[in-house]
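Moderator note: this is an archived Q&A kept for reference. The question asked for a predicted structure of one protein chain; the sequence and the answer are reproduced below.
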Amino acid sequence: MVQILGNTLENKKKVYIALTKIYGLNKYQTLFLCNKLNIGKDCKVKDLNQNYFVKLIKLIEQNNLIVENNLRQKYRSDITNLINIKCYRGIRHIQKTLNRR
């Protein structure tokens, strides 16, 4: 098993499918990253060495993809901004949290 950006990728899965476990990456983006790194669709996680994963992280940073904690933080700050300006969507978030109590 390989750990990348805080997620454990299973060895038996294909690379482009296993990378979708990373929060913020969808199938299209993972296929794009695999094509950039010349990783075939049939390649499995266990077939790759550590250099590919280092290149993968660098490629994510180069393409300015927001993933994991940064994306969660941005999402949270957007919701708090909606709540602060008291727009309809922000009010709905407030009502949702009040109903949970």
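Archived answer notes: The mean pLDDT is 92.
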